[in-house]
Amino acid sequence: MKLTNEQLERYSRHIILEQVGGKGQKKILDSKVLIIGTGGLGSPATMYLAAAGVGTIGLVDYDIVDLSNLQRQIIHQTSDLNKPKIESGKETINAINPDVTVKTYNELVNSKNIADIIKDADYDFIIDGTDNFPAKFLINDACVLLKKPFSHAGIIRFQGQTMTYVPDKSPCYRCVFSEMPPKDAVPTCRQAGVLGVMGGVIGTLQATEALKYILGVGELLTGFLLTYDALSMNFRKIKIKRNSKCAICGENPKITELVDYEQPACSFRK
Question: pLDDT tens digit string along 172-208?
């Protein structure tokens, strides 16, 4: 199927890129990306993927738009207060690009539904835009077991980090972070704060990784953890290796099915 005249104009800055061209743009239009969490990370990632012409975007979120979200979650507007985030996100995507089909899942991901959500449209790439460790470990486990590539990221205060997992080719999240930290050992953004633009920086990098994967161009953040410190304006790529003893992607995996996680309680020595 050929690109329409309107599409040729809309995506012209992509098409003139040697690494994209018309064929690459058609790959983007045929692609399907699932974004879990439409908050600080998911908002910019979603908007740039919609503008790029990703054919199907899945949004997973069970929350409603709160006034405190608007400092960083740019996919939502003041007029969206108290509206389900997936509904607000869908409206913004439709306003950006009518080429995009939006699938919404007004659910909290858990071990019972995450595989069905990922399989629903046979998504090509997953973006983890969540803000808690149980969800991040669950997303990693689901993607490893289902052999789906995904982008991990996290932000807090003036710092952010991201890495990309590709099945059978790179370390997974558990290779780097084998166990969840005790509950309250790492503060949340609600507790510690976050500079609003941090989501824009890291979330846009996640969208970049998704597009590079779809196009098959460049070097992905596989085998690297990219960290960013906004105060020093310093990016750092830390090389990471597959852990042969990893509980899910190692030589003798212990995790063979999905389960829901709870963070262990903090233990303090007197």
Answer: 999 999 888 877 777 777 788 999 999 999 999 999 9
Look at residue 39 and tell me if it is in a domain.
Answer: yes
Domain CATH code at residue 207: 3.40.50.720
Q: Which of the four pLDDT bands, split at 50, 70 and 90, describes residue 218?
A: very high
As a whole number of angstroms, the distance between CA 59 and CA 103 comes to 6
The pLDDT of residue 265: 54
In sequence order, the β-bridge partners of residue 153 are 162
pTM of the complete model beyond 0.85: yes
User: According to DSSP H, which parts of the chain are helical?
Assistant: 5-10, 12-15, 21-30, 42-52, 85-96, 114-120, 133-146, 173-176, 189-192, 197-215
Distance CA 120, CA 115 (A): 8
Q: Would residue 179 count as lying in a domain?
A: yes
Virtual CA dihedral for 83, 85, 91, 97, nearest 10 degrees?
Answer: 170
Q: Which two tokens stand for residue 155?
A: 């932000």
**126 within some domain:** yes
State how far Cα 132 lies from the chain centre.
13
| Confidence band, pLDDT 50/70/90 cuts, at residue 264 | low
Domain that holds residue 176: 31-239
Domain count, the chain: 1
Q: Which amino acid is at 162?
A: T
Average pLDDT over the chain, rounded to an integer: 95
258 domain-assigned? no
Is residue 86 within 8 Å of residue 60, measured between CB atoms? yes
By the 8 A CB rule, do 148 and 167 touch? yes
